[in-house]
Amino acid sequence: MAKKTALKATGLVSGAVLLGLLTVQGTYALWDAAVQATTGNIQAATFNVEMDGGNGSVMMAQPDGSAGTVSLATTALGAVDAGASVYAGVRLTNHTDAGGEFTLRAAAGQADTGSLGSLLTVHQRAVPGADLNACYNPALYTGTAAGSLDIPKHGSGVLCFEVSLAATAGAEGQVSTISIPLTVEQIVEHEG
């Protein structure tokens, strides 16, 4: 008896499905359309940042893709003596040709003080504007350090450096090259 009831139920469900399929009506169409497009140009913006350390300017990214290197002028105060400091800076100019606003954030990384190692101390400060002479003011290096600098499109900013030689240093006549990596990134503003 249970078999007969199951068979009736199966027949009833099959009939309902068949009735549902027969009553559903639809239109099936295949569309084929083509639109001719004219040729156009797409050009990517350039991310050009100029560095000037007082000895001439260099692009941050070279045409071959390598990083640019800039020499900083310290001639205003000469060589560093034990217990004294010298000052230098690099002017960064945002030369991008991107549309809209294109503000950059520049920062200096950890200095590699070369062969004089722990005898040298490097302090960094960020200054808006384009005046490298702002870096030669010892008062600039007191207080809290500005970690980064925002540079608007077609604007400039200066990263300043104070290099001090320990008073106990017996490094007379020695030369050391100090390397300071600079990073620049686009600031992306999010609305909402």
Key terms for this structure?
single chain; 192 residues; five-stranded antiparallel β-sheet; three-stranded antiparallel β-sheet; 8 strands; 26% strand
Low-confidence stretches: none
Helix content: 10-25%
Spatial order of strands in the largest sheet: 2-1-3-7-5
The span between the termini is 68 Å
Main beta sheet strand tally, sense and closure: 5 strands, antiparallel
Architecture overview:
The protein has one helix at 2-23; strands spanning 49-52, 57-59, 85-94, 104-108, 120-128, 148-151, 156-165, 182-186. By secondary structure, the chain is an alpha+beta fold. The strands form two sheets. Strands 2-1-3-7-5 form a five-stranded antiparallel beta sheet, with no helix packed on it. A hairpin with a 4-residue loop joins β1 (49-52) and β2. The N and C termini lie far apart (68 Å).
How is this structure best summarized?
The protein is about 10% helix and about 25% strand. The chain has about 190 residues and is α+β, with helices and mostly antiparallel strands.
Question: How is the secondary structure organized here?
Answer:
Elements: H1 2-23, E1 49-52, E2 57-59, E3 85-94, E4 104-108, E5 120-128, E6 148-151, E7 156-165, E8 182-186
Antiparallel strand pairs: 1-2, 1-3, 3-7, 4-6, 4-8, 5-7
